[in-house]
Design a protein that fits this description.
Length: about 270
């Protein structure tokens, strides 16, 4: 029996791919710009490096393509050994890449040093990872709580629950008690764990740090004053059977609203 060719022609495949784009409007290849100082600086550095590497690739592969087409054997080209043995040329193609690397490293190191600068923080929160939940403690204030996967998602994920996950809002990305923080404030996070290694990651903040048992990691974030809202993330370190059910939800409020919320929590 002859086999049927099920492969789509290239034009038909491109049309099908383009038609599927609206259904994947939330899918992107690039980094998000984020809502914090660090995330925007990381995005800017990423784009700078991307364009530099793209320019290098265009020049390098363009020269290779030109040489292959212009000086091919069928056109009678003969290898020039004098070019290969030129000390000046060898020096040139050694010095230029070194200068490019230095030019890329200097601003990158500056950003890394800025990421590690915890000075001037106005609020410190201790974050402890557990299998499979987070514990938040506002240092210097009598406020602490656990943050777990929302019951609606937990019920829907159970085998045989009969609940359509698509019917659950923010499925696997909702918690019972979100972390509440103020906008326009430098927030220092102290991260550790009580059992295995976890990782605290919110994409819009532009930072991810491991939470390691017996060790304190630090990170900071300043959410733009004009960007209050809800931001979601997940544990980014494989930490056990329920690793995929350990979301992070951060609610950013204006400072006045955050102060009122904090006082309410302390009075309970």
């Amino acid at each position: 029996m002859p086999q049927r060719n099920l492969k789509l022609p290239v034009p038909a495949g491109l049309v099908a791919a383009l038609a599927a784009l609206p259904a994947r409007a939330d899918w992107a290849l690039n980094l998000p710009r984020g809502v914090s100082e660090i995330s925007r600086e990381a995005y800017g550095m990423h784009m700078l490096m991307l364009w530099i590497c793209l320019a290098i690739a265009v020049v390098t592969f363009g020269a290779m393509a030109f040489a292959l087409l212009r000086f091919r054997r069928s056109r009678g080209a003969v290898a020039d050994t004098g070019l290969v043995d030129s000390p000046r040329l060898e020096l040139l193609w050694t010095v230029i890449p070194v200068l490019i690397l230095i030019g890329m490293a200097v601003p990158a190191v500056g950003k890394i040093l800025r990421i590690e600068d915890m000075s001037g923080s106005e609020l410190t929160i201790k974050v402890t990872g557990y299998q499979w939940q987070w514990h938040y403690e506002y240092l210097g204030r009598d406020v602490a709580f656990f943050s777990r996967l929302a019951r609606s998602s937990d019920f829907a994920r159970q085998r045989g629950s009969g609940i359509d996950p698509a019917s659950v809002e923010n499925y696997l990305l909702e918690v019972d008690h979100p972390l509440v923080v103020p906008t326009g404030t430098k927030i220092r996070l102290l991260l550790t764990a009580n059992d295995v290694i976890h990782a605290w990651w919110v994409p819009e903040f532009g930072m991810k740090r491991d939470a390691i048992p017996g060790f304190i990691n630090e990170m900071w974030v300043t959410i733009d004053a004009d960007r209050p809202g809800t931001y979601r993330g997940q544990c980014a370190e494989l930490c056990g059977a329920d690793h995929g059910f350990m979301p992070i939800v951060v609610v950013a409020k204006p400072p006045a609203e955050f102060t009122a919320w904090l006082q309410e929590q302390e009075s309970e």
